[in-house]
Amino acid sequence: MTSVHIQNAIGTVKAMDGDALLSPQVLEQIVQAVLVAVDERQMRDKRSKSDTTVTSGVAAEQETA
Asked: In this structure, what is the dihedral angle of CA atoms 35, 40, 42, 44, given to the nearest 10 degrees?
Protein backbone atom coordinates (compact mmCIF):
# COMPACT_ATOMS: atom_id res chain seq x y z
CA MET A 1 0.00 0.00 0.00
CA THR A 2 1.27 3.44 -0.95
CA SER A 3 0.57 6.56 1.05
CA VAL A 4 0.61 9.98 -0.61
CA HIS A 5 0.68 13.27 1.29
CA ILE A 6 -0.09 16.47 -0.62
CA GLN A 7 1.25 19.68 0.90
CA ASN A 8 -0.37 22.15 -1.48
CA ALA A 9 -3.29 21.90 -3.86
CA ILE A 10 -4.06 24.35 -6.62
CA GLY A 11 -7.51 24.46 -8.14
CA THR A 12 -9.79 26.65 -10.15
CA VAL A 13 -13.11 27.73 -8.75
CA LYS A 14 -15.68 29.01 -11.18
CA ALA A 15 -18.54 31.16 -9.87
CA MET A 16 -21.86 30.35 -11.51
CA ASP A 17 -25.18 32.06 -11.54
CA GLY A 18 -27.65 29.63 -9.97
CA ASP A 19 -30.46 30.96 -12.17
CA ALA A 20 -28.52 30.07 -15.30
CA LEU A 21 -28.48 26.36 -14.50
CA LEU A 22 -31.87 25.79 -16.11
CA SER A 23 -31.50 25.33 -19.83
CA PRO A 24 -34.33 26.59 -22.04
CA GLN A 25 -35.30 22.96 -22.73
CA VAL A 26 -35.57 22.11 -19.03
CA LEU A 27 -37.52 25.29 -18.36
CA GLU A 28 -39.91 24.42 -21.21
CA GLN A 29 -40.46 20.94 -19.74
CA ILE A 30 -41.27 22.47 -16.36
CA VAL A 31 -43.71 24.95 -17.91
CA GLN A 32 -45.45 22.18 -19.87
CA ALA A 33 -45.77 20.02 -16.74
CA VAL A 34 -47.28 22.93 -14.81
CA LEU A 35 -49.75 23.71 -17.61
CA VAL A 36 -50.88 20.08 -17.73
CA ALA A 37 -51.31 20.05 -13.94
CA VAL A 38 -53.36 23.27 -14.05
CA ASP A 39 -55.59 21.87 -16.82
CA GLU A 40 -56.12 18.66 -14.86
CA ARG A 41 -57.03 20.60 -11.73
CA GLN A 42 -59.52 22.76 -13.62
CA MET A 43 -61.16 19.68 -15.14
CA ARG A 44 -61.31 17.98 -11.73
CA ASP A 45 -62.84 21.09 -10.16
CA LYS A 46 -65.39 21.30 -12.99
CA ARG A 47 -66.36 17.63 -12.55
CA SER A 48 -66.57 18.08 -8.78
CA LYS A 49 -68.82 21.10 -9.17
CA SER A 50 -70.99 19.18 -11.63
CA ASP A 51 -71.25 16.27 -9.18
CA THR A 52 -72.39 18.50 -6.34
CA THR A 53 -74.74 20.84 -8.25
CA VAL A 54 -78.48 20.21 -8.42
CA THR A 55 -79.91 21.03 -11.84
CA SER A 56 -83.06 20.30 -13.77
CA GLY A 57 -81.28 17.74 -15.93
CA VAL A 58 -78.50 17.04 -18.37
CA ALA A 59 -79.62 19.76 -20.78
CA ALA A 60 -79.30 22.40 -18.07
CA GLU A 61 -75.81 21.16 -17.21
CA GLN A 62 -74.72 21.34 -20.84
CA GLU A 63 -76.03 24.90 -21.16
CA THR A 64 -73.79 26.08 -18.28
CA ALA A 65 -70.69 24.28 -19.55
From this structure: -170
pLDDT digits 0-9 by tens, 19-65: 667 788 888 999 999 999 999 999 988 888 877 777 776 666 666 65
DSSP per-residue string spanning the chain: ------S----------GGGGS-HHHHHHHHHHHHHHHHHHHHHHHHHHHHH---S-HHHHHHH-
Residue type, 51: D
43 near 37, Cβ under 8 Å?
no
